[in-house]
User: Fold these one by one.
Assistant:
Number 1:
Amino acid sequence: MHHGGSTGRRTPRLGGAGDRCTGARRAAADASLCILVAAGAACTAVDADVEETLAGRGELAALSSAPIEEAAGTLVAGESLQVCTRPLSHKPEQGYRSHNGIGLHGRWDPGPHYGDLDPREVPRRFDLRSVTKDGKPIDDVRVSGGRLQGRFRDGPDLVDGDWVGAEMDVYLLCTGTDEKFQARIDAVSSSGYQVKIHDPARNDDLGDASWRPACTAPLDDPEAVWAVPFAEVWNKSGSRSDSSTFFTLACPKSAIAKCDRMGYGGEAGTKDLTNTRLLRQACTRTLRADYLGDGEFGTRDGILIDIEDNRGIQVREQESDVPLLDLEAVWSPTGAVCANYPRISGNGDLPEHLRTCEAADAAPDPSRPDLIRSFSCGPGSMCERQYSSVFVKNWPAPGGLTQWSNVTVVNPSSTAATVELSVFPGGGGGPLGTVTVTIPGYGVYNSFGDPRWRGIDGDPTDENRPSHGWITLASDKPVVATHRTTLRAGSTWNAPARLVEDEPFLTEPSRRLFASHYLKRWPEAGGKTLWSNIVVNNPAAKQVSIQVRIHGVDGGLHELHRTLPAKGAWSSYGDSDWLAVADDPTRAGAMGWVEIRSDEPVVATNRVVHRSGSTYDAPVALLDDVGLTAARSAARQLAAGSFLRNVPATGTMTQWSSLIVNNIHPEHATVTITVRRRDGGPDLARFTKKIPPFGAWSADGDPDWASVPATGSGGRFAGDGGSAAGWVEISADLPVFGANRVMLRDGSTPSSPVVQFNDEPLAAPSSGSLIGGLYIKNWPGAEGLTQWSAPVVNNPSAGPIEVKVRLWRTDGSPLGELTPTIAARGAWDAASDPAWQALPHTEAANLRSLGWVGIISRAPVIATNHLTQRKGTTADAPIALHDATPFVGARR
């Protein structure tokens, strides 16, 4: 099976060194193999080919001006690796054209020295006849068993580390001519070779940095740099042939390397060599959805597939964590034989000549040993997978409170969606209970008050029996789900609420995850302390090992290891190793950030808590849950929807914000912070910070952050220096992540006591359809409070944009539409727009509304949905509780 990793059987990790499942490259595959073509599958687990964005056939035509093609003409000496890059003139998810396709060989890394350029496919031909070391030729160079072999004249054979420093010619096919560059082996391991390519145009100013890695290591798998050599070459149509003079180096995330690990090796001496090599080529066609066998691909990042062949090398995977998949297509070495539907829904029609697959095509046929069948998420398959790290029902909290979970699911499709919500115990095993619902087109499901939800893990005589675990969601359509944690003053599901926290379901299982905050007894105003705890969830039907790395803001490291059972979870709450991080020498507590590394994809959530005391179990005053950031979400361009300093709220309250930016790299990262006005006027401030390796920059106490000029004539109190409001853009020379903490303080200074806070992950701007969860207006809450929502949308573009804001009732009927225009570099705040306040009510008699909100924008934006509970029935009544959740892109 080829889907992204986690199954009940042994599954090779699609990476480089440190492969826990396979060790060194294997000659034969497991009987069944789960893989993912790329990252982000909405399924149980994800093998993230983070840097390998895939495109469909319909997206390729506009990008065909700069393909990598095999030259038929003269070989020329390359002058600059820049000929093998191109400007990033398109969104990453649109992909780019390459006759190899993303992932046939893999992608190389040109480095940051050419600005915003797109790395191209890794070189295709390395010359066996040109290999030298220390100026001496190496004779009889060949490839066997995934290793280079050769010797100096009249000398012994070279083995493993002897190859370090060897150089050879490599031919890059970038401009229609076959350009020759130098390549060098920098390291050797049991997993392969680290190879770099020399850029002669950068030799003078960069020195050794002019040698660029031949394989780009994705952020979620930094060890995936070990290329494997094969005694073959592949032409521009994706067809292989043997070669005694050239060889291919395939990156760990490439289709060539994956197919080899799946058992389709095709080396000399292999039993039934001809058919094995044909299957090898059929495998690369399958993984890349190369329907016509012409080298073009019809898939994209994150597509779940299962495969089987007629020789039994691969068989279908049917485990409890794997959706039941439909027959998608049958593949031969020359492309698709038949197909039932495109791998990507809405990506155009299948090629006209392809027939529909019949029942006989789905059955094993030993007379056709060169065929592979692929199974994928067809119409109606329950393939959508999302997760919430926490489920609590009447679970005790300090201070005599209890914790409760509720789920809201929005269906942004025009047709009904079937959704299954299953709750699993933290110790692993079968579900505690499952609720299946049908949500009408454009409708909403809310578990609050649903007796089926209340009955999960309940006793027939006591539905309020305390329980805790975590939640998985399966659906036959893309949906947007939110988990609400409520702290209640009582032991029933509708007892008065004291705290409310909303958090989107997690949609990106990953082998590498990040949290912006590690906090232990960190002092806060009013005698409170800050603490953080991580919950890590294993969606797989097998045991998973994780490495928890706690980085200090200065780059220091504390490390612990844990094992998660199948379908289980690990919580750091009360864990002695988690609490053993050394205190800051100047403070009576510890601060840092967290990295999770796992041998299989996992999800996780970080809970940050203000406690009324100095121990980890002191009573909770405030809390906020934030899903950990998947590695592929780290970016060079990020934004925070709010910059707030001493902005008046209700009563004596003021609003404040504080950024933290985390560097996930072993080298320094340089970030530029730009604070923009909401009205699109001149920037308020711009400054640059240098973050140490694996360190962080915090705006708290930073003089540049504190000196951003005021936008208002005064703050809450006279002589306080004025208020400032805007939003923030972050640009960096390396991918980073971070969070923006928005706070309500009782007072007008940065040290005034925090009354409410919310951590919002920094986000990359996105366009298209964005879903923001609930639309609430004057809706009753506990103890006389009312609930309200208001989106804030930021425009990072250099020109004004118009966005559509659409609202639906919970039954799926339309409620209204707004079309605000947002100034260049400006923002739209629905709370201050009279048109937002004038929207019709869903319950006119009670002057209140309940529904959901979506935004459509052709230009990239940052959108956040702000939810408040107020002490009154008007939109400006005093705020009792506040939370904010990001709008998320509609999933396909």
Note: The CA atoms of residues 551 and 557 lie 5 Å apart.
Number 2:
Amino acid sequence: MLRKFSALFTLLLVVGMILSACGGAATPTAAPAATKAPEATKAPEATKAPEATKAPEATKAPEGPTGTVTLWHAYGTGSAEEKALTQALAAMKADMPGVTVNVLQIPFDQVFNKWETEVAAGGGPDMFTVPNDNTGNQARGGLIAPLDDLLKGKTDAFPAASFEGAAVDGKVYGVPGIIKAVALYYNKSTIPTPPATTAELLAMVKAGKKIEINQNNYHNFGWLTGAFGGKLMDADGVCTADKGGFADALQFMADLKAAGADFQTDGGKADTLFRQGQADMIINGPWTLGDYKKDLGDKLGVAPMPAGPGGPASPLAGVDYWHINPNSAPAQQALAVDVALYLFGPKGAQIYADVAGSPMVAKGVAAADPLVKAFADAAAAGFPRPQSKEFGNWWGPFGDAVTKVMEGQLKPAEAVAEACATMNKANGKETGAAPAEKLAGTITLWHAYGTGSTEEKALAQVLESLKKDQPDLTVNVLQIPFDQVFNKWETEVAAGGGPDMFTVPNDNTGNQARGGLIAPLDDLLKGKTDAFPLSSFDGAKVDGKVYGVPGIIKAVALYYNKSTIPTPPATTAELLAMVKAGKKIEINQNNYHNFGWLTGAFGGKLMDDTGKCTADAGGFADALQFMADLKAAGADFQTDGGKADTLFRQGQADMIINGPWTLGDYKKDLGDKLGVAPMPAGPGGPASPLAGVDYWHVNPNSAPEQQALAVGAALYIFGPKGAQIYADVAGSPMVAKGVAAADPLVKAFADAAAAGFPRPQSKEFGNWWGPFGDAVTKVMEGQLKPAEAVAEACATMNKANGK
């Protein structure tokens, strides 16, 4: 919270009057002259009262926080990033005049060690900014401060997911700023078309093209993992790099060097060679973009790291954070957080984007330069940097492996085996170490996937995998129709029965948790959530407790048939024109599938901060009128979702609004003709579909040992191994770290969820479903006008919520 200090000044009124008396010396008396009649004495002029001295104006205390903080950064001297920070600090000084910031630049190769040494000795500055290379170890070592309390209520300008790279053991340790992942810079004058694959790159180098590559395991991570199919660790943190892929990547790098590639241990020299045109390509990150552009101008291009035989390269994707010194006094920590929120918040972030070409996490910040977007895409396709203690022990062993191979000291397979063994030893994961937790017993689960659907097939395959890995666990499965599953669970659990676990979207998690119909899992999840982003549990968090294990990200988008809709409609006006021209669209007639129009697209807002319905203040009625116009033009609003699906799958409809749960089935029928686009935007802005997550919930009636078994099963099914099966078989966008589907349509749904409206779990939101479901029905059936339907729904919702 910004702290305002007021200064009280006493106003003094000074009135000074100086009176002087005049006296003269005696002189001889002269003969008196004839006495004249004395002149009439003039009345003395009125003495003017002296003007009152004006009281000095009170000096205003500076608004906002006040105080002095010291920060460190490791931006290169004279670099675009350093200039951006300087300009951001100048802007902050204008907006927060009461804050003084002392700045010290530390060379990058010294900054981590210097911070850790000084903080461990009880000193250090108030804050510093670095990539999250070692955040996990620093947090566990007490070298950076947890910021959860200081950030409360102040993070709206940042995506929730942007804090995950600084989340360790459930606490947040940084304020997020610059997204960082490497890509391939190239000089367009000598490389008109950049290499898309490692084979093309090798051929170019053999033909005489020059590439600079930093000889380390960071810049080459994308080849060590994704491009050659390597996987660094399994879900238990055991190094698996020696199982394949890593050695192939190192062999490719050795071949590249033999062909003429320049592997540099001096990053500055590599930069200079590229900037001066003596090299055609270089692999580097966005931190050099501004400097490269200064030298190369329009000749500069950026492309993804070349893909390999194992798939796309997956560079290590990290974020620069501001971290706070645990030794600083509480008031200093609060002040440092305010500074960090400004520098990496929208105003400071826009300066970084414009001056340094930095891709920033802050909402609403975009650089005009398309090269910046290329780096944002590189990070999105990258491997999120883990903060587990196991990953913290990868840097040294695999940095040595790269050196030993590139210097000819070891063969690739030998270097990887040595590095993996060293990493496992440091992590206590050697052969003979404690095995993964064993699950033994029988549990029953319910799901609501459609019979024969790809989601049902994915679950079946996951359970087969679970049986192989946990042979002593038996899982009994029952499929419940989706339109019955919530009611059936709630009825049976309320009566003291029900299965051990079930999976559903978090449509009603808040009410179920408050009603004691699902079990809190905090104690059962302790120490077991590293495979999941911290924010993925938010959708099952009610009153500070977690009630589910997260899995499938869900938000609707626009499916379209490319053979009849070459370019999907981007706006509601375009969609209406298409339907009037004879194109067919299927829309489920409910308030879930149309939420994106009811809110964002027409500027509607469902509730205020107190939970009071405000839909009748505008936007919702306009959205319902658009939907009525769409129906009048020929759109098919269906109450039978299965029928809507069939019409689209059979080619009798050109478009349908639906979620990722149907992706696998639609692809089976439409193949390459299937496209996915965002819901069309409206006059109020982009559509904001309701973004939710499928969770596994556990029965509060189950015995403690049964609950523990159910949680173990849930962590496997929605953990990395099970989630990858869902992604591959059903095309499901999953929350588990390191899981990615090859299908670009899956990413379109992940993007839809990211742009959506996170599903609240407040008791107030729980009372939106019925009233607004009825509103949609009454408008679409012609029973009420849009404004009347919204007014009725809002009044019903407010009455239910005591508002």
Note: The radius of gyration is 34 Å.
